[in-house]
Design a protein that fits this description.
Blueprint (H helix, E strand, L loop, with lengths): L6 H28 L4 H9 L17 H15 L1 H20 L2 H4 L2 H5 L5 E4 L15 E5 L2 E11 L7 E7 L9 E7 L5 E3 L14 E11 L3 E2 L5 H37 L1 E2 L2 E2 L4 H29 L5 H25 L10 H9 L9 H15 L2
Parallel strand pairs: 1-4
Antiparallel strand pairs: 2-3, 3-7, 4-5, 5-8, 6-7, 9-10
Helix pairs in contact: 1-3, 3-4, 3-7, 3-8, 4-7, 7-8, 7-9, 7-10, 8-9, 9-10, 9-11
This protein binds flavin-adenine dinucleotide.
The site of flavin-adenine dinucleotide has 19 residues, from strand 1, strand 3 and helix 11.
């Protein structure tokens, strides 16, 4: 497939792969075991220029679009799902601020690209996950600026955040119309972080709840139009869903590679298990579905990079790829037999890490609802 890629995308893939194999892979098991954010590795990704991969050149990026970001993501997540996940956060934040931020907010972009300013986004609340329009956190205007009150849940990199984008209700209207995004100093008084969540997988991302207790923000803290953040969030989800798809794809590829090499060396009934048709068929399905997923992701990326709407295509890529990856990582574990159930083999970590992809950036039930809605529109 890559034979048809332009030279700069092949170069990006090769550079990211070399970096991931040399720097990420040797750290992946320890990040999982220690569950501590690896700031050094985060900065190394930044110094390779990876956080600006999708950003336009005039804004300090590499201008390689969504397709560049997904190619880099696949290589990083192949070596560590958690590091792939960490990569997504600054890539999305830089794009979001470039597209919607005011002059003061855009001054943060160079620091984000350099890995010096760690961003995080807080949309989800303990009582409102899929139903984003129902969120309850409030930002109230007074003479000096904004005052925020509320509770946010599951903030990836929340424990180490420097620049926090909070989605809050800024008007009296209910539903999606009165929601704004406010950019806060992550260390501002009144930002109270919960302890890091104890998660099944994706360790080392300092994921935590955040309580906003009378947090003050300047008058120009709103990113984009006041009361217009719901629409911006939905548009942003299209991009982030492509990244999540590529993250799941990278993990599926890692599991496939491990399964092939295990099946070649593991002998039962007098020969390597790769000689059994049941194993061959699992590998054949994995290989086919991995390639199909990449085509689906890259197709949606090309539409996005051409400025075309991708609500259906992004949801399809996310649904298909993350279901595919969850199933195939499980099959790869099956090929490892009892060893697959042991921490001694990487597939055990992949099995835990990959499960998140069906849940976040919109669950796969929500992706089906989006696809159904778009299909209905298309059918008139
Ligand atoms: C590790 C981790 C990291 C995260 N990082 C972030 C982050 O950085 N920032 C952030 O804002 N959020 C983050 N999230 C939150 C994540 O986006 C939400 O968990 C996700 O959107 C689902 O919301 P929920 O957990 O409240 O589930 P719910 O919305 O309560 O859903 C529960 C179940 O009901 C189903 N369901 C809900 N509504 C419908 C419906 N209308 N039709 C059919 N089925 C439905 C869902 O599909 C799901 O199966 C993170 C979550 C996790 C676990």
């Amino acid at each position: 497939m890559h034979r048809f890629w332009p030279e700069e995308l092949v170069a990006l893939r090769d550079t990211t792969r070399r970096f991931a194999e040399a720097e990420v892979l040797p750290r992946a098991a320890a990040i999982d075991a220690e569950d501590v954010f690896d700031r050094d590795l985060y900065r190394k990704m930044a110094s390779l220029g990876l956080f600006g991969v999708a950003l336009r050149e005039a804004a300090g990026g590499a201008g390689l679009g969504a397709i560049g970001a997904c190619i880099a993501m696949e290589e990083l997540a192949r070596c560590s799902g958690a590091i792939g996940n960490a990569f997504a956060i600054p890539v999305e934040a830089a794009l979001f601020l470039d597209q919607h931020g005011n002059e003061r907010q855009q001054q943060l972009i160079p620091g984000i690209l350099a890995g010096e300013i760690i961003p995080a986004t807080a949309v989800t609340e303990p009582e409102h996950g899929s139903d984003v329009a129902g969120l309850r956190t409030t930002a109230r205007r007074d003479a000096e600026g904004w005052v925020l009150e509320g509770s946010k849940a599951w903030v990836t990199l929340g424990g180490v955040v420097d620049a926090l984008m909070v989605f809050a209700r800024t008007g009296t209207e209910g539903g999606h119309r009165a929601i704004s995004c406010l950019l806060l100093d992550g260390k501002a008084p009144g930002i109270l972080r919960g302890k890091n969540e104890e998660l099944l997988g994706m360790h080392g991302l300092a994921d935590c709840s955040i309580t906003l207790d009378g947090v003050r923000a300047p008058a120009d803290a709103v990113v984009g139009p006041e009361n217009g953040a719901f629409k911006m969030a939905m548009a942003n989800f299209n991009f982030s869903r492509l990244l999540m798809s590529a993250m799941a794809l990278g993990m599926a590829r890692a599991a496939f590679e491990d399964a092939v090499s295990y099946a070649r060396q593991r002998k039962q009934f007098g020969g390597p298990i790769i000689g059994h048709q049941a194993v061959q068929f699992m590998l054949a399905d994995m290989s086919t579905e991995i390639d199909a997923s990449r085509l689906l992701i890259h197709h949606a990326c090309r539409l996005y990079d051409a400025g075309l709407p991708i609500a259906k295509e992004a949801a399809q890529a996310k649904l298909f790829t993350t279901d595919m990856a969850t199933r195939n990582v499980s099959n790869a574990l099956q090929i490892h037999g009892g060893n697959g159930y042991s921490r001694a083999y990487r597939v055990e970590r992949l099995y835990r890490d990959v499960r998140l992809a069906q849940i976040y950036e919109g669950t796969n039930q929500i992706q089906r609802m989006i696809i159904a809605r778009q299909v209905e529109k298309e059918m008139g």
